[in-house]
Amino acid sequence: MARLFDEPVGDEKADHAAVPVCASPNDIETSKESLKFKDFVLENMAPHPLSETPPQDFEAGINQLATVGRLLDHPELARVYVYVCYYGPVTRPQIKAALSIPKTTVYDHVETLETLGVITIEGTRPMEVTADPVRITTDGHVVTPTHLHAVALQEVDEDISYFVERHGVGKLAAAVRQAGLHYGDRTTQRMAADPLGISTGEAISIILALKPAIAAGREYDPYFDVIFPELADDIEFETDIDVTASLPNAE
């Protein structure tokens, strides 16, 4: 069985500084990591022209785009969101226990997610937290909770963390697609290397690492068939994956 929300591993990841407007080539090279999400938005998530979209819809779409961007750029925040989205309603103590993160961090992330408008807090003592599944579709590209789960796994999976550090979150989103094709028996792990533009070893590693995101997405993501319209029903696993099991970290 694979655990989706294990305890964090490795050192805390530092925030990358923004690139100056008049950055030198060396500055740009050293700040390469900080550009990865920006590049992903510009290349893969460009909004439709304003003239084609009613003002209210355009404003709502931009707000949701900004929210998804925040989640894509902050794995721990995405981890809390995905947990609530998949297993809510849950209480904040339940989030703390399931994700093994400090109480103050849980409260901060829940407050941030509420401000972003993707979760709702209801009831009194204990208050329950629920989340609406998000979906951004622009120019043929889609981001759903399955992609956000893949991003969140950076917090608990060193292979995914290394992959994003090396290739960026846009490539991770493309790897989610290739992982679905593999688990839907359309391709092998090695075949994912060419469309992703990575080595065979990296392809095998990331396809295996994304298995929990694909398994949970098939079970809980209402937009899973949007990512895999032709094979969502064909994605199956030989053994059940207990998405709430508390397993020790692998050595």
Please describe what this structure looks like.
With 251 residues, the protein is mostly helical. Helices cover 52% and strands 6% of the residues. It contains 13 helices and 5 strands. The strands form 2 sheets. It has a 3-stranded antiparallel beta sheet with strand order 1-3-2. It has a two-stranded antiparallel sheet with strand order 4-5. β4 and β5 (141-143) form a beta hairpin. α3 packs across α4. The protein is globular, with a radius of gyration of 18 Å. It starts with 24 loop residues before the first helix and ends in a 24-residue tail after the last helix. 34% of the residues are buried. Residues 7-48 and 244-251 have low confidence and may be disordered.
SSE succession: HHHHEHHEEEEHHHHHHH
What is the 3D shape?
globular
Strands of the widest sheet, in order across it, are 1-3-2
Structural class designation:
mainly alpha
Separation of the first and last Cα atoms: 15 Å
β-strand number: 5
Percent of sequence in beta strands: 5-15%
Quaternary state of this entry equals: single chain
What is the tally of helical segments?
A: 13
Radius of gyration: 18 Å
Largest beta-sheet details? 3 strands, antiparallel
Helix fraction by DSSP (H/I, runs of at least 4): 40-55%
Q: How much is the average pLDDT?
A: 79
Low-confidence stretches: 7-48, 244-251
List the defining traits of the structure above:
disordered C terminus, mainly alpha, 13 helices, 251 residues, two-stranded antiparallel sheet
Summarize the helices and strands and which ones pair or pack.
Layout (H helix, E strand, L loop, with lengths): L24 H6 L5 H9 L10 H19 L1 H13 L2 E2 H8 L3 H14 L2 E4 L5 E4 L4 E3 L2 E3 L1 H8 L5 H10 L1 H15 L9 H4 L3 H10 L1 H10 L3 H4 L24
Antiparallel strand pairs: 1-3, 2-3, 4-5
